[in-house]
Amino acid sequence: MATPLPSTSPTSSPAAGNGVGPSAGADHAPISVLHCIWHGETGGAERSVYLLARAQMLDPGIAPALLFAQGRGPYWERAQEVGCPVFSLDMPSSRSVRYIGRAAKLMQRFSVHHFHSAEPPLMLASMRCRNAHRVYTHRGGDTVYPLRQELRYRITGRLLRRGFHGFTGNSRHAIASAATLLGVPPERFVVTYNGLDFRLLEPTRSLADIRAELGVTEEHFVVGTAANVRAWKRIDRLLRAAHAMRRPDVRVLLLGDGPDLPRLRRITKELDFESQVIFTGVRSDVGNYLQAMDAFCLPSDALESFGNAAVEAMGSGVPTIVFSDSPGLVEHVQTGRTGFVVADEQELRDRLLELADDRELAFAIGTAGRAAVRERYNMAGGAANYRRLYESLLA
User: Fold this and answer.
1) Number of CB atoms found within 10 A of residue 334's CB
2) Is 272 in a helix, a strand, or coil?
3) Distance between CA atoms of 308 and 42, rounded to whole angstroms?
4) Taking Cα atoms as reference points, which of 23, 45, 24 lies closest to residue 35?
5) Taking the model in full, what pTM does it have?
6) Mean pLDDT across the chain, nearest whole number?
7) Rounded CA gap, 354 and 350, in Å?
């Protein structure tokens, strides 16, 4: 069950203490950190926040908790299952300013308020807590939004400049985007890449079982992707490139769901490619399906600031391809060594043909990619980076 919101001015508790300075640990109370995000639905930011809080639970110097504006979604549920203190405001919309006072009463229990999305009402509530230290992590790559969202970011930028103490981005691209969008100088940010728990990707079902479910054999060349399916993920590029291979042994495996899925189904039908594309819907056990892939492609545009799905595929040893106009994804790949960076659909088709015809190359690329991302994006390293940031702010 979620932790209920206090009806009176709260006091500190063992799970969410008042926090201390840089030597938090065995001789001091842990640093109490409240992670703030809108909801816990399926998404890269939501997964990253959940994994970070779970990793911090293992650190005796950190006491994490999660505050959701809306208590819903799989990561809301998982956080409760692992025993992390979880709070929900049940806000009907991001314009519900009447919740500010209620949120402030809860938030004053925590030394560090760590925001993972632009939430002006919650940020205003945090700024009522004069002794709190506020951290903002930018997890987006775009700088142009519809008018309503642009206004939201303008307000967020003003709040950040006036009342926040620490700034991070989950990639260099995210930092460049944040500086333009929010008006916060880039030198105030530090890069803190998402930490991923690669143990969660270990298969729990046999490869034979997965192949039987998907209707593929070892003779097929399976290129996969996984995404919250939106237009800017550009999955249509993968469909067209795979179709252009003109090979009956090719299968495209799409894990995920989202508003762009009907369009992708129409494109598949127009290409007369339906028999070679497998739409699975959302799968929580992604590792089971990664083992069936011979290649992975995340064709996202510059909106993608990090791309957990691509890093997870690399971490599972699947040779991975991204596009050169997606700077956040390019940060993960040494092209020709740990993966491939392509310029267009024709080059994507060529790389897929190369991987399909040269299994030794595919194995070498997959192995190098696995080693690179598991060293760079491990969960312990990400959690340690944030702890150092919290300690520097409290010092």
Assistant:
1) 14
2) coil
3) 12
4) 45
5) 0.85
6) 92
7) 6
Q: Do the beta carbons of residue 167 and residue 135 sit within 8 Å? A: yes
Q: What is the CATH number of domain 31-195+378-394?
A: 3.40.50.2000
d(CA 180, CA 195): 25
d(CA 24, CA 21): 6
Q: Distance between CA 342 and CA 113 in Å, rounded?
A: 39
C-alpha dihedral sign at 387, 393, 394, 395 = positive
Can you give the length of the chain in residues? 395
Token digits for 393?
A: 């702010």
Going from N- to C-terminal start, the domains of the chain cover 31-195+378-394, 198-376
Q: Are 373 and 315 in contact (CB under 8 A)?
A: yes
Q: Determine the 3-state secondary structure of 3 from DSSP.
A: coil
| Distance, CA of 19 to CA of 29 (rounded, Å) | 6
- What is 198-376's CATH superfamily? Glycogen Phosphorylase B; (3.40.50.2000)
Structure tokens belonging to residue 326: 């997606």
Element housing 266 (H / E)? helix 261-270
The predicted-structure confidence for 254-264, as pLDDT tens digits, reads as follows: 999 999 999 99
DSSP 167: E
Q: Rounded to whole angstroms, how far apart are CA atoms 237 and 344?
A: 8
For the stretch 289-337, pLDDT in tens is: 999 999 999 999 999 999 999 999 999 999 999 999 999 999 999 999 9
Collapsing DSSP states into helix, strand and coil, what is residue 184? coil
276: Cβ–Cβ under 8 A, 6 or more apart, which residues? 242, 243, 248, 250, 251, 252
The secondary structure of residue 354, as a DSSP letter, is: H
Q: Which of 139, 73, 290 lies closest to 200 in space, CA to CA?
A: 290
C-alpha dist (Å) from residue 389 to 27, 133, 354, 382: 20, 11, 44, 11
Q: At 310, phi and psi to the nearest 5?
A: -65, -45
